[in-house]
Specification:
Layout: E1 2-3, E2 6-7, E3 13-17, E4 24-29, H1 33-50, H2 55-71, H3 73-84, H4 88-108, E5 115-117, E6 124-132, E7 135-139, H5 147-159, E8 162-166, H6 172-184, E9 192-194, H7 199-208, E10 212-218, H8 221-232, E11 237-241, E12 246-250, H9 256-268, E13 278-284, H10 288-300, H11 320-335, E14 339-342, E15 358-361, E16 378-384, H12 387-395, E17 402-406, H13 410-419, E18 424-427, E19 446-447, H14 452-457, E20 460-468
Parallel strand pairs: 7-8, 7-10, 8-9, 10-11, 12-13, 12-17, 13-16, 15-16, 17-18
Antiparallel strand pairs: 1-2, 3-4, 5-6, 6-20, 11-19, 14-15
Helix pairs in contact: 1-7, 2-4, 2-5, 2-6, 3-4, 3-6, 4-5, 7-8, 9-10
The chain binds NADP nicotinamide-adenine-dinucleotide phosphate.
């Protein structure tokens, strides 16, 4: 753990398991409430000096850290693949995207503008200042174990906040690598602290300690709700990036090859373990057979294996529990009448938590897979007749993170853009995410946004100031 600029050891260690081999890939020291409290105190002390730096000065340090991340791309990418299984090429890309968040916020730190408002009384000057909220607590998941850290800590540090981070227990070495870059990049002691260990104890300390002014969380909707309840006690601010159940709608006028390649990208990347992964593929009735055939062929070409092998397209799931969840969803769907077009089972003849890339046809809205986030490599195909019908069905979920729509009718594309109840919509675009755009969800997919200026303002308070003077101004 990294507290107040020092690497801390405790008397407890945890072994990290590689999901592709089920073998140990390292050990980390773990802690709990005590370490979380120390880290919060350290962030509290550091806040006084970190907030006093100019945005330019803070930005330069973030840019240094981004450069350090890129220099360490290979060891960081290897840590990602060994801890959570994604193919090494994707892990390298994740490091680049993690650095991109730091670069963007490093630049943006010098552009935190306030506002001057017109006064009703001309002897007054009315202003809005933007100030850092203070110490923040950040909790991140394992599926993007590096970029989720920089997407939170980049804007927080740029805003002048200081932070305590708890990473997911399956990917602590990734977090350690990122913090080594913080250290090498010249981040002052205490500005960012790393606490690994007991989620409940650390989370409780973060939500109950009055020093912590904001909780930023990425993970499941259930844990997000729990943190929101706890954060209510001290009226802490919250940003929640939670679960998703993305619809991918394909109209009969769409470019089918493009749609197939895009479903492959949005469904099987990261073995489907992405909050913006496609969960429901809606195909217009007239093209369902052709689309299913082409998708099954493309899925059959995916090479599943250990992510450390350069030609692997899809790695394992993160652990046995994730594998069981996917397996159960497919079994239940098949029992309720769905057909397995390809895949449909775990890979038996190998170690590791591998599930075959799967396509299901004949899935219906009543099935569990149509409602519960899959977080695995299963593409269930649903069919629809009309635009009106598919909008209603696509929106009929408690989630609202990402929606995709493929059509060559621009008017229809624009209608879908307006009518899909999702925080992000990709029209003919399977990969819309960029550091300067607001990422986040509606409904139970979350509150607040990460990325762009919205992501920076999440870590700032607006302060309204009125200065009255008796001086003659004109
Ligand atoms: P998770 O079980 O909610 O865990 C996320 C983090 O929360 C982990 O660090 C976890 O630590 C911690 N945690 C669990 N219980 C806690 C508690 N009581 N107090 C404080 N922290 C606690 O989610 P996951 O399985 O790791 O990640 C997958 C989920 O994240 C999916 O639902 C996915 O959609 C969502 N996600 C959303 C976004 C987005 O931007 N919207 C991005 C990526 C992922 P422990 O494991 O030690 O419990």
């Amino acid at each position: 753990m990294y507290i107040n600029g020092k690497w801390i050891e405790t008397n407890q260690k945890e072994t990290i398991i590689n999901p592709a081999t089920e073998e140990a890939v390292g050990e980390v020291y773990i802690g709990g409430q005590k370490e979380a409290e120390e880290a919060i105190q350290s962030a509290h002390q550091a806040f006084k000096t970190w907030r006093a730096l100019s945005g330019n000065e803070r930005g330069k340090i973030l840019l240094n850290i981004a450069a350090e991340l890129l220099k360490a791309q290979t060891p960081i990418a290897e840590a990602i693949t060994n801890e959570m299984g994604k193919p090494i090429a994707d892990a390298r890309r994740e490091v680049v995207s993690a650095a991109a968040y730091l670069e963007w916020y490093g630049e943006e730190a010098k552009r935190v503008y306030g506002e001057v408002l017109p006064a009703l009384d001309t002897a007054k000057q009315l202003m809005v200042l933007r100030q850092p909220v203070g110490v923040i607590g950040a909790i991140t998941p394992w599926n993007f174990p590096v970029s989720m850290i920089t997407r939170k800590l980049g804007p927080a540090l740029a805003a002048g906040c200081t932070a305590v981070l708890k990473p997911a227990p399956s990917t602590p070495q990734c977090a350690i690598e990122v913090f080594k870059c913080f250290e090498r990049g010249g981040l002052p002691a205490g500005a960012a602290n790393l606490v690994i260990g007991d989620a409940e104890a650390i989370g409780k300390e973060m939500t109950s300690n009055p020093i912590v002014k904001k909780i930023t969380f990425t993970g499941s909707t259930n844990v997000g709700k729990l943190l929101m309840r706890n954060a209510a006690e001290n009226v802490q601010k919250v940003s929640m990036e939670l679960g998703g159940h993305a619809p991918f709608i394909i109209f009969d006028d769409a470019d089918l090859d493009d749609a197939v390649a895009s479903v492959i990208g949005t469904k099987f990347k990261n073995a489907g373990q992405t909050c913006i992964s496609t969960n429901r593929v809606y195909v217009q009735e007239s093209i369902k057979d052709e689309f299913s055939k082409r998708l099954a062929e493309a899925v059959g070409e995916l090479k599943v294996g250990n992510g450390m092998e350069e030609d692997t397209d899809m790695g394992p799931l993160v652990n046995e529990a994730a594998l069981l969840k996917v397996e159960q969803q497919v079994i239940k769907a098949a029992e309720s009448g769905a057909t397995v077009v390809t895949g449909g089972s775990r890979l038996e003849d190998t170690k590791g938590y591998f599930y075959a890339p799967t396509v299901l046809a004949g899935t219906t809205d009543e099935m569990t897979i149509a409602k519960e986030e899959t977080f695995g490599p299963v593409a269930p195909i649903f069919t629809f007749q009309t635009e009106e019908e598919v909008v209603e069905r696509a929106n009929n979920t408690q989630y609202g993170l990402m929606g995709y729509c493929f059509t060559n009718d621009i008017g229809r594309g624009m209608r879908m853009m307006h009518q899909l109840d999702y925080g992000m919509v990709g029209i003919n675009d399977p990969a819309p995410i960029v550091p300067h755009a607001p990422f986040g969800g509606m409904k139970e997919s979350g509150i607040g946004r990460e990325g762009g200026t919205s992501g920076l303002h999440e870590f700032m308070e607006e302060k309204f100031v009125s200065i009255r003077t008796n001086a003659k101004l004109f």
